[in-house]
Amino acid sequence: MSEKRILLGNEAIARGAYEAGVKVSAAYPGTPSTEVSEALAKYDEVYAEWAPNEKVATEVAIGASISGVRSMCAMKHVGLNVAADPLYTAAYTGVRGGMVLVVADDPGMYSSQNEQDTRMVARAAMVPVVEPSDSSEAKEFMKYAFELSEQYDTPVILRTTTRLSHSQGLVELEERKVPDDVPYERDAAKYVMMPGNAIKRHLVVEARMKKMAEDASSMPINRAEYRDLSVGFITSGIAYQYVREAMPEASVLKLGLVNPLPKKLIEEFAAKVDRLYIFEELEPVIEEQVKAWGISKAVGKEIFTIQGEYSANLLRERVLGEKQDFHPEEGVPARPPILCPGCPHRSVFTALKRLKIRAAGDIGCYTLGAVAPLGVIDTTICMGASISTLHGMEKAKGKDYIKNWVAVIGDSTFMHTGLNSLVNMVYNQATGTVIILDNSTTGMTGHQDHAATGKTLKGEEVPMVSIPNLCRSLGISHVTEVNAFDQAELEKVIREETQREELSVIIAEAPCALLKGIKFPNKCRPDTEKCKKCGACLKPGCPALTRKEDGTIAIDETMCNGCGLCMQLCKFDAIKLVKAGE
């Protein structure tokens, strides 16, 4: 008897990969895709790893596929940009064992620096895309994606979104079925993409996509649901759920394969409904193709936004003219994001602000250093960009200009792509100061390990990559390790290193306050008799500190982690460290 469980979409994707017989998985954590790999790592039959970045993860999956087994990699939408180089070529080489890339888009930018539609990248790369609409389909589509991959000799993308990745649904668990490994045979014409071979493989890719488009109309993951023929929707993914909720009697063409599109099926559906809407989040990928085929009655982005996340209420408003009377956000106090109590990044940013130094920032929790009350980060572009940005500034404006600047980057992000940027600074004889915020984890995505933490995705203890030694091995003479919570030493080191006429690295070390196993034996406690009401301790914006009506400071000991930052900023000895519970 089969078992049924309620699973997150990401957990269901992992289950589908397991049932499909995947043997190798690689990924870099990125919300909303992270839980796919975390769930997959629980299956002993699957080798799963954290790679330093998405490009490497994709190349690992390609290597496993070429060796003849089913493989996968997982990433968020911006990670696909990093992986694009191997992906575009993998479309040419094709596969031996099935290969699937799980890519999670983030409509609404809940945890991303841009909105990006993976379907657009896939069209350019000539890679097919399947898109489930609930957890059950997430599992089944993952299995189907491997079948498509092997049938059409191509990597396949399974596209998900934040809402689907983090929603729960009932999933039927089935047995794992592992296909036989495909015996390896040397085939340089297929797998060695020198120009002469690539020219021929391009023709193969075009023929494959054409054949797949012809077959798509009869694929079981594309289906027409005919109900009221006065109105019809072409949709896919989580948007399908919104259509069914808001307009349950409408006819729906639900697309599971969103690249290439099933032209014949779409034309048949369009001919049968009076009014036709195309309801798709983000870019008008389906809409543009449908209208290019001459189906002019289709209505899409004329009434639906190209930005943000869709909802059933959006559909009710734009199609049915119903206004939403319930506005749950009204009257709710604004809660801007803020660094956690005891976060070592707050201490570093406090030192930078006191020294009036600007920072080129990177992707991570420390992006919050851009907002009040810290306000020291002036740029955030992408993973690893802080170091390259600082380098560009120095080459544009000279050494003196960047004496009031630093680059800040986390330890995981440094291992992701920051290392290459630092190599570039060394190679091109740059000056400037790079601060590596080493909190011993990949904090923003939920505390995943990486090469410098000494633990794998499977939880195995392995040798740690030493970030200080790595920097010194590049030939950087001035590499300084400092306790991130030691304000006096931090200010001293930052002041010295930013004035140098050569490249320097500061490694500010202190673990993330939310890491498991990190204990906080002390609490900070104010002495109201000594408090001068100056507010110096409030400037870093720790949420554990508040000002009372009389102007003195209160510290919520249930929130305080005893980092001592506020105590160091108080010139009047009005804050003491005490043992927790005293």
Can you characterise this structure?
It is a single chain. The chain is of the alpha/beta class. Helix content is 35%, strand content 20%. The chain has 19 helices and 24 strands. Strand 22 (545-547) and strand 23 (553-555) form a beta hairpin. It is globular. The mean pLDDT is 93. Residues 522-550, 551-580 form the 4Fe-4S ferredoxin-type domain. [4Fe-4S] cluster 2 binds at residues 542, 560, 563, 566. Its EC number is 1.2.7.8.
Topology of this protein?
Blueprint: E1 3-8, H1 9-19, E2 24-27, H2 34-40, E3 47-50, H3 54-66, E4 71-76, H4 77-93, E5 99-105, H5 118-125, E6 129-130, H6 135-152, E7 156-161, H7 162-165, E8 168-173, H8 188-191, H9 195-216, E9 223-225, E10 228-236, H10 238-246, E11 250-255, E12 257-259, H11 263-272, E13 275-279, H12 285-292, E14 298-299, H13 312-320, H14 344-354, E15 358-360, E16 377-379, H15 385-397, E17 405-410, H16 411-427, E18 432-438, H17 467-473, E19 478-483, H18 487-498, E20 503-509, E21 522-526, E22 545-547, E23 553-555, H19 565-569, E24 575-579
Parallel strand pairs: 2-3, 2-4, 4-5, 5-7, 6-7, 10-11, 10-13, 13-14, 15-16, 15-17, 17-18, 18-20, 19-20
Antiparallel strand pairs: 1-8, 6-12, 9-11, 21-24, 22-23
